[in-house]
Amino acid sequence: MRTVDRYTTDVPKGRQELVRRNADDTVHRFVVIVPTGYDPAKSYPVRVYLHGGVQRPEWDSGGRW
User: Fold this and answer.
1) How far apart are CA 36 and CA 13, in angstroms?
2) What pLDDT shows up at residue 14?
3) Predicted confidence (pLDDT) per residue in 13-64, tens digit
4) Contact predicate 13/36, CB 8 Å
5) Which of 22, 48, 50, 53 would disulfide-bridge 26, Cβ 3.0–4.6 Å?
6) Comparing C-alpha atoms, which of 15, 13, 18, 41 is closest to residue 28?
7) How far is C-alpha 56 from the geometric centre of its chain's CA atoms?
8) Is the alpha carbon torsion for 57, 49, 21, 9 positive or negative?
9) Distance CA 25, CA 40 (A)
10) Distance, first Cα to last Cα, the chain
11) Which of 42, 43, 34 is nearest to 10 (CA)?
12) Strand, helix or coil for residue 53
């Protein structure tokens, strides 16, 4: 029998700017956008945008990507 994951409605919604640090202290910034009308009973597409901007200047919070 297949188990079904249960998701909660109590999640941050909208645009969230997050940071992950490697063991060597390298910073990786990323954005997660959860729809304001998020419904855990529905399926949603996942979009991933990759870029090669390793020499780009630091971005400001709330800025454009």
Assistant:
1) 5
2) 93
3) 999 989 899 999 988 888 889 999 999 999 989 888 877 666 667 767 776 6
4) yes
5) 22
6) 18
7) 20
8) positive
9) 34
10) 43
11) 34
12) coil
